[in-house]
TrEMBL record:
It holds the Pfam family TPP_enzyme_M. Belongs to the TPP enzyme family. Mg(2+) binds at residues 436, 463, 465. SUPFAM superfamilies: DHS-like NAD/FAD-binding domain, Thiamin diphosphate-binding fold (THDP-binding). Residues 204-305 form the Thiamine pyrophosphate enzyme central domain. Residues 4-114 form the Thiamine pyrophosphate enzyme N-terminal TPP-binding domain. GO terms for molecular function: magnesium ion binding; pyruvate decarboxylase activity; thiamine pyrophosphate binding. It catalyses: a 2-oxocarboxylate + H(+) = an aldehyde + CO2. GO terms for biological process: aromatic amino acid family catabolic process to alcohol via Ehrlich pathway. This is pyruvate decarboxylase. Residues 405-529 form the Thiamine pyrophosphate enzyme TPP-binding domain. Keywords: Decarboxylase, Lyase, Magnesium, Metal-binding, Thiamine pyrophosphate. Binds 1 Mg(2+) per subunit.
Amino acid sequence: MTTTVGQYLSARLGQIGLKHHFAVAGDFNLVLLDELLAEGSTRQVYSCNELNCGYSAEGYGRANGAAAMVVTFSVGALSAINAIGSAYAENVPVIIVSGAPNTNDHGSGHLLHHTLGNTDYGYQAEMMRHITCATEVVLSAANAPHQIDNAIRTALRERKPAYIEIPCNLANAACPAPGPVDSLLSEPAADQASLDAALEETGRFLYARDKVVLLVGSRMRASGILDLLPALADRLGCAVTVMAAAKGFFPEDHPAYRGVYWGEVSTPGAQELVESADGILCLGPVFNDYATVGWRATLNPENTLLADLQGITVNGRVFTGFSIGQYVEALAVRAPRRASSAETPRRSVPAIPPAARGARLSNDEMARQINALIDGNTTLTAETGDSWFNAVRMELPGGARVESEMQWGSIGWSVPAALGGALAAPDRRHILMVGDGSFQLTAQEVAQMVRYELPVIIFLVNNRGYVIEIKIHDGPYNYIKNWDYAGLIAAFNAEDGHGLGLRATTAGELAAAIEQAKANTRGPTLIECDLDRADCTETLVKWGTKVAAANSRAPKVN
Ligand SMILES: C/C(NCc1cnc(C)nc1N)=C(/S)[C@H](O)COP(=O)(O)OP(=O)(O)O
């Protein structure tokens, strides 16, 4: 039984649970795109450019578990590199497939378009090797199935992007048909002796502690076991905090939830709770400079148990040979049961009083109205900028999710990522919070939201510039040309479309715009929120000065 290389790839993408793949056409991938359409397991969705294509795939992968994208050689793939870097840094398995030169051109001395103008076509794969967990350059149809399977299997296991390069003359070449998908999906069994030893050492750690707290970090997205965390918290009877990049990873209506731990910009009570505990179970944490507020919020290693994707470190010993999911699942049933120390839940952030309808729109009022829009079936995508700080202070009902990109932090990511999330989870409400500066990098993807009739509610925070940068280190470079953001939607609708562009300068206008957005179910609604530049969250100001201080440390004199 045979198929073609392109249809083998297409069948595998469908078998691992994708319903869509993202693409931008180019002459090195047109036949491959035809093969994907012919096999039909996944719907082909187009992006305005390859960077946005990659960001959309990452957003899709966050909601769906994995994603795929198809670009053309060099001019396409090199544009996508920033997005693949994001998927790598944020632990999202994106399969990036690039068309490539005809196999007869290799070694021929031919100079080809869309290349560096020499006869070495290997540079693209070399670049991808640094930001993927597997890089497969297909040069024969016979070997293509092994290479495609290896790339997909490794991406799913490592929770990282993988790269596949398919020459334009092999996409429709015959190759063997795929076998069962189980070989790509099965997780290695835990090494039981190692897991038992890790649990035993964890028990010793817990018995020696009076005050235990769970700290959930963003690498837990890759664990696939977020739904087990409440059972673990119940077993340990401890309070739970999350790091800013893991906002929404633990249900905030759970009695043990105590807010976001972010050093001195934590939600009220969370910093004291974590830093006074003598047993902190850190699950998938990322302690980078932003998360530690410029290296100021650091925990005592004596008091921490570190559970990460590579293994467990506790009481000065490292345990590997099992996944973090297998560890948490076992711990939730075998940890020494501890009496609940969780007090009655309280609002983790002070309530914001509603502003009068005629009042000038403020950041606080905007955040308050957005929070009121979030229900248990909502995904809030928050862009780098003050949107991070507005998202972190939201009170989330159980089931609500927040998606942010706090490790990679490439502005513009959120617009395509929100599109990807909306395609992956059409039954959820999708809200996007994005600043004017970030929006200008990837704005055209809103046209694709119009095209695919995705009812994303976009809060475009127009504070006239790069405010987070202004707070870190000001200069003329932080000020941008203003756009008529609401007016853009008419351009994106063109002959047809259900996009809606609205502008809010007062609390009442915002409330009315939100009602219109909720009723617009056949396209995106962009609400331009007009704010004073100086009107940002207090936490941004506090955090920005500390990060600026870290950035400006003098070089060490040896
Ligand atoms: C310019 C930059 N970061 C530098 C940067 C530059 N280029 C890329 C791709 N990614 C980056 N993070 C950042 S965070 C701006 O303040 C974003 O401005 P905006 O979207 O308007 O948000 P705020 O006003 O809330 O800051």
